[in-house]
Amino acid sequence: MGFLALDDWIYASYLAARPVNAGRPDREVRRPDLAAAVLRAIGSPHEALPTVVVAGSKGKGSTAASLAFLLRAAGLSVGLLTGPPLRSFHERIRLNGRPIDDDDFLRFSAVVEPVARGIPVDPAKGEYIGPIALWQAVGYLYFREKGADVVVAEAGRGARFDDTRALGARWAVITPIFEEHVAELGPTLADIVWHKAGAVGSRTEAVFVGRQRPDVFRLLQDVRRRGEAGGPSVRWATFGEAFGVTACEADLQGTRMAGFVGRTAYRASLALLGRHQADNFALAVAVADAVLRSLGRGPLSPAAIERAAASVRWPGRLERLLERPLVLLDAAIHRSALDPALELVRLARPRRTHAVVGLAAGKDPGLLSALRPHVDALWYAPPTNPHLAPPSAWPPKARAAVDRFFADPMAAIAAALRATPDDGALLLFGTLSFVADALRALERDPADLGDPLAAVSARSGGRGDRPPPP
Description:
Blueprint: H1 3-21, H2 26-29, H3 32-41, E1 51-55, H4 60-73, E2 78-81, E3 93-95, E4 98-99, H5 102-117, H6 131-146, E5 150-154, E6 171-174, H7 182-185, H8 189-196, E7 206-209, H9 214-225, E8 235-238, E9 243-251, E10 254-261, E11 264-270, H10 275-294, H11 302-311, E12 319-322, E13 326-330, H12 339-348, E14 353-358, H13 366-371, E15 377-380, H14 396-401, E16 404-405, H15 409-419, E17 425-430, H16 432-441, H17 454-459
Parallel strand pairs: 1-5, 1-6, 2-5, 6-7, 7-8, 13-17, 14-15, 14-17, 15-16
Antiparallel strand pairs: 2-3, 3-4, 9-10, 10-11, 12-13
Helix pairs in contact: 3-6, 4-10, 4-11, 5-6, 8-9, 15-16
């Protein structure tokens, strides 16, 4: 079974039902019960692995990666399931920072495929087994065999009808929420919040809520009061109360922060860029501390926080790709996500600033008009992913903000690099598929995140990978 055949199989069920489901909201078409059926049919490997599910509109990936690094730095073996990959499908399934290898990928896929084919679905009625259900089934078989202690899983665009709902999250995380995927999750902000709050399930013991807009926080509280986000015994920990950031400095070298979780204060120097990463990291610290305590391995030590902060990587999220010219790449899909990158550009004081943006349907074309005043030239190119359509409705202001439209993102990025002086800056913003295009254009490989305990193991002469208990 080759990779192309495997890819065809994973998406076959979804693609067969896609014509029937076009334009229908998630609550009508998504079936987490089918994801649960796949897991049961392969022996319920998720039951043996306590799981954190991370949901939200932005910061999900960075928070999930930071959490995985923190738990790993504390001595746990950590499985990480993430959303759309940047270069290889193997990136969706990582153990201790490293993607699943070819042999294991194919071996466990060969277990899941016949099981999934045996579960009856009728694509004519819009029924399908989602690709994420199949990826996570492969992942949990792999994690169980390799002895993972815990799994961190990033939810898709929603959570209430997402395939991660089948995992029975022991801990739920909700990163910042804003208006996105309105057609699938909306039409109102209240609907979107309700979907995201669905990360909290019947088995969830604690919920961790990152920094939110006041209106979003009120809507989350409404969902909670209605009993639609876990029962009354579920503990909720919120940003600014149970944990938070007390100081932050960000520049092109990294992000230095001071934070707290409960009564414990800490400092961290993050390799990640941008003030928003301090918020994400503080959220991850709070979750990691709770997970470790619940598993009898806590509290989270300052040494583990320091190791994780220095080593955590999350490619394509406000990442500096070049110094001269300064090239910043970020999976920014909403106008509210521009500030961290623009702050770094102001610090660099470039002679000229150019930008290439690649968005897909469901993202915010208003990002273009919001970005226009800050750049000397703005170009647009759609991502190469054939499954993604461009924004269906371009506001006149957004269209007028663009100096030139390209059909090919690789051509747009190459032209922008040629036009940007060495003492200038180039911003590359867009959906994850566009980020993948940019990484290909600049020949960067985002697959291996590294391991925060590798240096500890090397210093100990290779005698295991777990540091002394904190």
